[in-house]
Design goal:
about 300 residues, mainly alpha, Farnesyl Diphosphate Synthase, two-stranded antiparallel ribbon, about 75% helix, about 0% strand
């Protein structure tokens, strides 16, 4: 990871002073960097890491950072991970251009080294993330989402990026298409569990989780605990939930009442059980490979991202 840090910084370097200032700020406020770790551990579990593995991790991180910068513009967010967002400090126009720049650096990094297999995996991920986000926005307007649609949204919107981490990690050390696809599916499985954990945070009481309680309800996002509550509730309870989501989603008391209703109807227990199903499936997929230090670390990383406190 130390070696990767240096390579990642150089992959963002620019001759424009403003860009250099902003990319330096981005590196300084980096998160847990679990996505590059998925790349490295997947590769190391299968073979020795190489230059292609470092480029795969940089490509993923450039893409991920670009999407976060753009997301903050779309969401009009002032903060991310406790730091001011790029758009808060430098305004929307600069933030959009910085996101575009980071994406282009990732594309050029791949093209320069002819990593077309990595580029294909990541490009598919970008397409799916966009489709998932737009599908969620469409469903938020109508509030007609069921569990099947929910899983399709999170598979595209969140799980596809972790899937591409593991697919790229495998592709950096192997040309075996079946193996690469198997590892991509492993990452997708972890990503689905990761998103369900994120859904559960919306019903917690700890304000240190990284997002305000009830933010998904305020944004009319139909999460798994809420969908389960709608299937289990009485006609009157369903009416309260839908009415709050449609017309009173900014009223703290009404949002708190919906959170309490979801808890009473077993939404949190159901979502936790489904999350653990995907965790178990991911761990079983790992056990298909020879036991080594990287596999054990990858198994620990799966548990970390699902058990994380924020």
């Amino acid at each position: 990871m130390e070696e990767f840090e240096g390579r990642f910084r150089s992959s963002m370097r620019s001759s424009v002073p403003l860009l250099d200032r902003i990319t330096h700020y981005i590196v300084k406020r980096k998160g847990k960097q679990m996505r590059p770790m998925f790349v490295f551990l997947t590769a190391k579990m299968l073979a020795d890491t190489n230059d292609s593995t470092y480029r795969a991790a940089a490509l993923i991180e450039l893409l991920h950072t670009a999407t976060l910068v753009h997301d903050d513009v779309v969401d009009d967010a002032d903060k991310r991970r406790g730091f001011f967002s790029i758009n808060a400090l430098w305004k929307n126009k600069v933030a959009v251009l910085v996101g575009d720049y980071l994406l282009s650096r990732g594309l050029l990094l791949s093209v320069k080294h002819k990593d077309y297999d990595l580029l294909e995996i990541v490009s598919n991920s970008v397409r799916e993330m966009s489709e998932g986000e737009l599908l969620q926005m469409e469903k938020a307007r109508r509030l007609d989402i069921n569990e099947e649609v929910y899983f399709e949204i999170i598979r595209q919107k969140t799980a596809s990026l972790i899937a591409s981490c593991c697919g790229c990690g495998a592709a950096s050390v192997s040309n075996d298409k079946a193996l690469i696809e198997r590892m991509r599916l492993f990452g997708e499985t972890v990503g689905i569990a990761f998103q369900i954990r994120d859904d559960l945070f919306d019903y917690g009481t700890d304000t240190g989780i990284g997002k305000p309680i009830g933010i998904d309800i305020k944004e009319k996002k139909m999460t798994l605990p809420l969908i389960h509550a709608l299937t289990k509730g009485t006609k009157e309870q369903r009416k309260i939930i839908i009415n709050t989501m449609k017309n009173h989603n900014t009223d703290p008391k009404r949002v708190a009442a919906v959170i309490e209703l979801v808890k009473q109807l077993g939404g949190l227990e159901y979502a936790t059980a489904r999350m653990n199903e995907y965790r178990q499936r991911a761990q079983e997929m790992l056990r298909e490979y020879p036991d080594n230090e990287a596999r054990r670390s990858l198994s620990g990383l799966v548990d970390f991202v699902i058990d994380r406190a924020k």
